[in-house]
Design goal:
The chain contains one helix and no strands. It is mainly alpha-helical. It has one domain.
Length: 42
């Protein structure tokens, strides 16, 4: 059981880290697009 919990935790950590990286990247791209559209409007 301890081995199963450990492997489960390890397998969950990697996708979570990838999701965080993707979320930050998407947020950064969307904020850049908002900035560009704001500058265009101005």
């Amino acid at each position: 059981m301890a081995d199963g919990d450990t492997s489960r935790t390890d397998s969950n950590q990697t996708p979570n880290a990838i999701n965080v990286i993707l979320a930050v990247r998407v947020w950064g791209i969307s904020s850049m697009l908002k900035r560009e559209t704001a500058q265009t409007v101005n």
